[in-house]
Amino acid sequence: MEDQPLNHQKHEDITQNNGDHDTNPNQTELPPTNVADTGAAPTQNSNASKPTKKPKKRKPKVPRDDTAPRQPLTGYVRFLNERRDQLRAEQPELGFAELTRQLASEWSKLPTEEKQQYLNAADQDKERYIKEWTEYKKTDAYIEFKKQQMEQKNSNSAAKKSKHDNNISKEVSTSQVTEPPTLVSTNQTAVTLSRQPTPQPKPCVTPAAGEDPADTDIPIFTDQFLQHNKLRESELRQLRKANSDYEQQNAILQRHAEEVGAATCRLRAETAAAAERTAALVAHRRALVAHLVQALHSVVVPLDDGACGATESNIEEYMEKLSILATETKNNPLVKQARDILNKVDLSVI
Question: Are the CB atoms for 183 and 190 separated by under 8 Å?
Fold first, then answer.
């Protein structure tokens, strides 16, 4: 019984202490929170700053010309159409990706003669398409189709322009009614939060060879687009193959040019050495002729122009006649005199 008053008194002391703690005059009182002072934006503006998903725009359907000529097939596509059913019958468990991969491997390993047959057929089909397309562009059906295409294009552009004007007017009216943008104060610097629309890339299909630039407005994931894509891939493969061939030819020509350059340098060195030897021989001959003329100018030998001694102009004829005389008559006094003179000539200085 005595414990109850004590417990009750203890409970009153605890309550009083709590009350004293709540009413402590030394405790500083916090001011009310202001959004502009703390830099926190309202909930509505923070939600508005988040990007919202825009509905996907549907592209307008482009009218399809059913009367146009059938587009050509490439050699690879012809091989696929011919071999796909056979391979599917042989291996029915193959999926589409594995089937396409195996067909591509067979095409890459196909001999050149067999592959050339498909490529020749593709070239003939392409020539047929270009010829038919040229004739088709002169028909009334093509003119009517282009007229419908231009009308639809103009209507689509007009609709886009009106929609754009409506969006601009709505944005202007909304900006006039709503509150001004929230200013976030950080170190007394006002920053306006604004959101700009993300620019969307425009699809572009460049015209291929034999196509009209106006005919490239093709909707994606259609038969015409897939066929157009196949034509582009075929042209790209042909260009890559031609580029590889040109690179090989350039490598061969470069090696040939290096070999020709080395041979040219070698021939130039040989020509320079031969020129030096020729110059030395000419100088040696000139010195020899000078010594012979000086020694034999007094020995008169009968020549075609008359008997005379050795000179620089007739030295060859002179020595030839002297050699004939030495062969015919060994005891000729002219030969003996010339032999005695030549034995006394010092040829080591030449």
Answer: yes
DSSP E strands in 138-232: the ranges are 183-185, 190-192
Which among 79, 59, 249 is positioned nearest to 159, based on CA atoms? 59
CATH number of 63-174: 1.10.30.10
Do 198 and 54 touch, CB atoms closer than 8 A?
A: no
pLDDT in tens, 42-62: 444 444 455 566 666 566 566
Tokens at 117, concatenated = 């047959």
Contact present, 224 and 218 (Cβ < 8 Å): yes
Whole-model pTM? 0.31
Q: Which residues of 122-157 are buried (b: 16+ CB within 10 A; e: fewer)?
A: beebbeebeeebeebeeeeebeebbeebeeeeeeee
- Parse the chain into domains and list their residue ranges: 63-174, 278-349
pLDDT digits (tens, 9 = 90+) for 133-173: 888 888 888 888 888 888 888 877 776 767 666 666 666 55
Q: First vs last Cα of the chain: how many Å apart?
A: 157
